[in-house]
Amino acid sequence: MSEATLNDDSALIEGEVVRELADIPAVEVISRAAVMLMSSAAEKLGLGEPDPATSPHLDLDEARRVITALAGLVTASLEYLGPHAGPIRDGLQSLQRAFREASSHPDAPGAGPGEKYTGPVY
Questions:
Q1: Which range (20-24, 57-61, 88-92, 117-121) has the least confidence?
Q2: What SS3 class is residue 34?
Q3: What's the pTM?
Q4: Cα 69 to Cα 15: distance, rounded to the nearest angstrom
Q5: What is the pLDDT of residue 57?
Q6: How far, in Å, CA of 38 to CA of 32, rounded?
Q7: What is the phi-psi region of residue 55: left when phi exceeds 0, alpha when psi lies from -120 to 50, beta otherwise?
Q8: Chain segment 112-121, per-residue pLDDT in tens
Q9: If 0-12 CB within 10 Å is exposed, 13-18 middle and 19+ buried, where does residue 92 land?
Q10: What is 71-118 written as a DSSP string?
Q11: Which pLDDT does position 79 carry in this prediction?
Q12: Under DSSP, is residue 11 helix (H, G, I), strand (E, B) or coil?
């Protein structure tokens, strides 16, 4: 294949991806992003393992960042999520509680990951 053919193929593939994203409703894009952030936070909290404390993926610093990003996304898009808002908020709060439980020195209520956006989680 010539370089021109490769570039044409890449442009075609990228063009298809852009068209597909344009057809997806915003609420679905936001929900998918939230689910990806939730999954990432759960892995970084070690929740995919029988004993989270011994998980090779446990990284509280990274979990804090992802949970805070999730909280910002959820808070900013709450009005658009409709019936998806409740389950996503519940998932966020569960992750915030799991973070508190995983911390050897838990943050004060209101100072945990994302709590500046969601309010204190006990």
A1: 20-24
A2: helix
A3: 0.82
A4: 28
A5: 95
A6: 10
A7: beta
A8: 999 999 999 9
A9: buried
A10: HHHHHHHHHHHGGGHHHHHHHHHHHHHHHHHH-SSPPPTTSSTTHHHH
A11: 94
A12: helix
For residues 56 and 79, give the distance between their C-alpha atoms in angstroms, rounded to a whole number.
37
pLDDT score for 1 = 47
Can you give the pLDDT at residue 22?
87
Q: How many residues does the chain have?
A: 122
Residue with tokens 């989680």: 121
Residue matched to tokens 């998918």:
32
For residue 9, pLDDT over 60 is answered with no
Give me the mean pLDDT over the 8-12 stretch.
Answer: 55
In angstroms, the CA 76 to CA 72 distance is: 6
**Token pair in block for residue 87:** 């389950």
Tokens of 65: 């960042």
